[in-house]
Design brief:
Layout lengths: L1 H22 L26 E6 L4 E3 L5 E2 L6 E7 L3 E3 L4 E3 L4 E12 L5 E9 L6 E2 L5 E4 L6 E12 L1 H6 L3 E8 L4 E13 L10
Antiparallel strand pairs: 1-4, 1-13, 2-13, 3-12, 5-6, 6-12, 7-11, 7-13, 8-9, 8-10, 8-12
Length: 205
């Protein structure tokens, strides 16, 4: 009888011990409960690379039917630059000098003339002559009577190889064009570039 009682007592004691072992996380690090816009888990980079360029109330303009890089040393201001990214507002470029996966975004208030169609995108270049468009970043807007100012935004991911980063010539740019007149992007928003890989590659860059 005593043996039965002892066995029952030990069994009852063992239950909460088992529960404590299995209910807690095996890995003590906090679980990731935030996802990126593409659905992958959010892992904050251990090698932050961040650059922004913000247009003021006057804004930057594109006045041709072909894509023009938004650039202006007075009305486009680099802010909060970290890491090896170098933003040149006069040239409208962000130089990428680390390998890895990057996310680039833009948003602003776009002003056009009635019946104009404005198009915006992000692109990369190594010579500031030929550009590779980031397809997912393209946005097209119609400027209609009464709503000539339209909020625009776009986003794209691009990968930078070690060899490209080492060359130090890769530029990211934000561009615009207009079907007949001028597109102006002004007020807040702007261009934001950030490295989104979790960790620094084994070898720099």
């Amino acid at each position: 009888m005593l043996n039965r009682f002892l066995a029952l007592f030990l069994a009852l004691v063992a239950i909460p011990a088992l529960a404590d072992t299995t209910s807690g996380p095996i890995n003590p690090l906090p679980k990731i409960d935030i996802v990126e816009t593409n659905g992958t888990a959010n892992r904050f980079s251990n090698d932050p690379q961040i650059a922004t360029m913000i247009p003021d109330a006057t804004g930057v303009t594109a006045a041709t039917t072909a894509f023009t890089v938004f650039k202006d040393g007075t009305h486009l201001t680099p802010l909060a630059i970290r890491g090896a990214l170098i933003a040149n507002s006069t040239q409208g470029t962000v130089t990428i000098a680390r390998s890895g996966l990057y996310r680039a975004r833009y948003y602003c208030s776009a002003l056009g003339t009635t019946a104009d169609v404005s198009t915006f995108d992000l692109a990369t270049t190594v010579d500031d002559i030929s550009y590779s468009e980031i397809a997912s970043s393209v946005m097209v807007v119609d400027h209609l009577t009464g709503i000539l100012t339209v909020p625009v935004s776009g986003e794209g991911y691009f990968n930078v190889s070690t060899s490209t980063a080492l060359a130090g010539t890769l530029h990211l740019v934000w561009r615009g064009k207009n079907s007949a007149h001028t597109t102006t992007c002004a007020g807040g928003g702007g261009l934001i570039v950030e490295r989104v890989d979790q960790s620094q590659p084994a070898a720099y860059p």
